[in-house]
Amino acid sequence: MKRPTLKEVFELEPDGRSLVVKGWVRTKREAKAAVFLEINDGSRLANLQCVFEVPQAGSALAAALAKAGTGASVAIEGSLVASPASGQKVEVKAVGLEVIGEAPSESYPLQKKAHSLEFLREIAHLRPRTNTFGAVARVRNRMAYAIHQFFQERGFQYVHTPLITASDAEGAGAMFQVTTLDLERLAKSGQGVDYGKDFFGKPAFLTVSGQLNVETYCQALGRVYTFGPTFRAENSNTTRHLSEFWMIEPEVAFNELPDNMDLAEEFIKYLLKTALADCAEDLEFFDQRIQKGLVESLGSVLDKPFAHMTYTDAIAELAKSPEKFEFEPRWGSDLQSEHEKYLTEKVVGGPLIVTDYPKEFKSFYMKMNDDGKTVRAMDVLVPRFGEIIGGSEREERLDNLLRRIEELGLDTSTYSWYLDLRRFGTTPHSGFGLGFERLLLYVTGMANIRDVIPFPRAPKLADF
Ligand code: 4AD
Ligand code: MG
Question: What's the predicted TM-score (pTM) here?
Fold first, then answer.
């Protein structure tokens, strides 16, 4: 038989079969009659208990046990028996122990005690060995898979959009430049920059969104999505922003804003349902240790429709609020995170879709409403941190789109291919972007976005 993962071992009957298990020691406890090693291999949250008889002094087993401290990698030979301890069906009655790699307690940074999340951020290469980060990684994995399942089950085609681009998909100018020019030499020489000599023959950047590219495939394949890394050079040092994050962007031809809202709601509910069903042990852990009431609050989202509100109504709600905000809510200014929290937590008590925002702070590609002031935008907001999804119906009318690009002072030439989609066989179409790490904040209850991605990138932070 192939060596089972510990998750698989937990599902076996305690029939006395002999087996070898491998993993890392989480705790060692020496009692009068036995030595207990709890090991974990990351396949699930629970540790497997391995029980040794107290070894004779000076024996090989005694020497091995002495080296098997927290963090050591081990192979344990024994038989699978029923466990008398509560909460676990099986344990290993151990007879052999090989310490594969020691983790000396004087220098190993992770000890048995609980460590702060701040401290663990400084040892991002070791933190996946903790319960919290193991659980985050497993939920992240399951959600990534569920995203593909959701779209594939509904006839969407997965499109790979480029990471290097010459056009600003959001028109917001928050892009990292990609260049092979020798900046230091250019600065010293005092010459200007000639992008004709740069790698791509023109300025190039890391993409802020795959949307514009995925729209081209939408206008041929109908239902498409992209799922990949995106980059934002905004100087936002918050618990909700990363400089490199993953985004899921579906785009559907002939869909109008209400269809887009329905798709977003169905999508979020599918992901929550999957997490509750398939990550139950990890979510229970987050509920106990990170965010009390998490499981119940996620479950309650499944039963009722998402609330809907226009931006104008949202501003009116905020104006009525007895709460004092740091930023006064005013028609024409973007909603702040404190406003989004108030609306979701105090007004609707769950997710909320806000639509029809003023054009001033939304992107150039959003469809103009007949009032000439607002656009067919939608943000999905959730309790605890606010925006989880941003999307819109797209402007499919060539004249309107050209006018917006010019009004905003963007360079029409870099969007010429995008404008062709409106010149040839244009259709109403809509899509949105779900921030993958925002989804994980929501599902795990973790408070800081830097703790739901393995290696966070943020201003002045590119370690590991
Ligand atoms: O609202 P955003 O900027 O929308 C777009 O990029 C559109 N092109 C999406 C589309 O319509 N296809 O970003 C979408 C989502 C946000 O709602 C948020 O969840 C996440 O991406 N996001 C970030 N997540 C982490 N760090 C950042 N700096 C983020 N900026 C946006
Ligand atoms: Mg947004």
Answer: 0.97
